[in-house]
Design a protein that fits this description.
The chain is mainly α. It has helices at about 1-30, 30-45, 60, 65-70, 75-85, 95-115, 115-130, 130-160, 165-175, 180-195, 200-210, 215-230, 230-255, 260-280, 285-290, 295-315.
Length: about 325
């Protein structure tokens, strides 16, 4: 039974590897890559090229592979695409699912060689979460950087309005002179407005791409000002001051909760470090936990308790401002 499962997993791994290699070849040597390379040659050499049939290509139509059609049927496919774009990762949903499947197979096959299938399934499930954890970490870092840059951008837009520019021109100034990743999001908003989308809808799309309370305050204030009137320059200045004060308070809270976060990291790493140290000093001492059924149950219970403790400590030390 175990040999059959291992053989099936190996065949699935080879299939996914072949699909990944084909996707890599298509992205570098395929029709789309050749078309992009031809356009770059046209831009550098001045040789005219045939006009494109459409200005914007629909991604759902462009990806015609079976895995893309399968992912499109999932209820949270749109949320996954938004999560990837918020993380600033050059992935597609197909790449994410392929990486998840490969990580699961690696995490499943390696323990299966030495231990039972139950531990192999648990290790495979844990390994399959690594791509999602990577995207979430990139997303959190990108949103945190955006939040730090946001007050300066509001001041930049406010100064542009004082100089006599329209609000759309102020967004364009922020897109051209602002730092990354903030400039990218504002550039998308200005491009949507230039392509015919209304300014309120472009701002709502900005708030959807960047799920921060400060951005929602900014979009709400601008939409209310467009409906009722008022001094938009003063509104943006007040929002910028409010965001700065909130970031200062959040920094003070992080300083006060640093001891709790350090204690959490120590408690999380202590069992792992102790297990590694015992295995190095006495290599056969912990084999009973891997071979005996009671030891495996104890390890599973310990892992569940550690996960519950991590979530609980994270909830205690995470204070929303």
């Amino acid at each position: 039974m175990i040999q059959t499962a291992a053989l099936a997993a190996a065949v699935a791994a080879l299939t996914l590897f072949a699909h990944a290699m084909f996707s890599l070849w298509r992205s570098t040597r395929g029709k789309a890559a050749r078309r992009i390379r031809a356009r770059m040659v046209a831009l550098t050499t001045g040789i005219p090229q045939a006009p494109e049939t459409a200005l914007i290509k629909d991604k759902s139509v462009a990806r015609s592979a079976w895995i893309a059609r399968l992912i499109a049927t999932f209820p949270r496919a749109e949320h996954l695409q938004r999560l990837i774009s918020q993380g600033g990762v050059a992935w597609t949903p197909e790449t994410f699912f392929t990486a998840t499947a490969i990580a699961f197979l690696i995490g499943f096959l390696l323990p299966l060689i030495f231990t039972s299938w139950l531990i192999a399934v648990a290790c495979g499930a844990a390994a399959s979460l690594l791509p999602l954890a990577y995207i979430c970490r990139r997303r959190n870092k990108r949103l945190a950087l955006f939040e730090i840059q946001f007050p300066e951008t509001l001041d930049l837009i406010s100064r542009a309005l004082r100089a006599g520019h329209a609000f759309g021109s102020g967004l364009k100034v922020a897109a051209e002179e602002g730092p990354e990743p903030l400039a990218t999001e504002f550039r998308l908003a200005t491009e949507e407005i230039n392509l015919g989308l209304s300014a309120p809808q472009a701002l709502l799309n900005l708030a959807q791409r960047v799920p921060l309370d400060d951005v929602r305050f900014f979009v709400t204030a601008v939409l209310i000002q467009r409906e009722t009137g008022g001094n938009l320059t003063e509104i943006l200045a007040n929002i910028s001051s409010l965001v700065r004060e909130r970031l200062k308070l959040f920094a003070n809270i992080r300083v006060l909760s640093a001891e709790g976060r350090l204690s959490a990291w120590i408690l999380i790493s202590l069992p792992v470090a102790a297990g590694v140290a015992i295995s190095l000093m006495n290599p056969g001492y912990l084999n009973v936990l891997l071979v005996d059924q009671l030891g495996q149950r104890l390890m599973a219970g310990g892992l569940v308790s550690m996960v519950v403790g991590i979530l609980w400590m994270r909830r205690i030390i995470r204070i929303r401002v």
